[in-house]
Every structure is written in C-alpha cells, then in structure tokens.
Amino acid sequence: QVQLVESGGGSVQPGGSLRLSCVASGSTFRNYVMGWYRQAQGKERELVAEITGLGLEKYADSIKGRFFIYRDNAKNTVSLQMNSLKPEDTAVYYCKHGNTFWGQGTRVTVAS
Fold first, then answer.
1. How many whole angstroms separate alpha carbon 86 and alpha carbon 58?
2. Long-range pairs, 69-77, Cβ under 8 A, ≥24
3. Which of 13, 60, 73, 108 is most open to solvent, judged by the fewest CB atoms within 10 Å of its CB?
4. For 75-97, how does the pLDDT look when each residue is reduced to its tens digit (9 = 90+)?
5. Residue 110 in contact with residue 54, Cβ under 8 Å?
C-alpha cells in the first residue's frame, strides 16, 4: 500500500510563491508517474502537472511558465514550485502516484 503525505500549502497573496511537497512510502517510486492535481470549490479535479520516472514533465496550460514540478527519486519526493500565484489557483492540491494512489490534499489559498 502506497502512502502519500503532502505538505506546503497555505495562504499567500497574489503574485506570491509556494512550494508543495509529497513524500511517498511503500512504493518503487522511480517506476511511476507522479502528478499534482487540484480541485477548486465546485469544480472537478484537474491535472496541474506530472512527471515521469525519467523526468519528462507535462503541465496544464493554465499554469505553464509559473509552476514547475520536480522529483527526487532517492528521497521518494515530488514537489511543485508555484510562482506568480493567482486567485484562480486557489484549490486543494493533491499528489497522485501512478494511476491509483492519492494524497490527502493540501489547501492553497491565494487572496489579498
């Protein structure tokens, strides 16, 4: 059973930055795509960014050039650096392992 523990959410003003981290346990981490998703209130969960075990990255159009995904296979960690945050980035952000496992979510609020 894979467990994912996220951290790094919080409140920030527009234009600010946050870094989310997700640590996986119980996994052959390097073999799996890791992703960050988000779900805003009243909306469906959507892909933000994902990264393969070899480091190939994919980003949603809405965050390209502002968010960056990283992984450290030695530490079983995937991170999301979020810059130039906008109010519309407000959501609960979830880490996903492969196609199956989700973290508990961490809330990001962007407001003045």
1. 20
2. 69/34, 69/36, 71/34, 73/29, 73/30, 75/23, 76/23, 76/24, 76/25, 76/27, 76/29, 77/21, 77/22, 77/23, 77/24
3. 13
4. 999 999 999 999 999 999 999 99
5. no
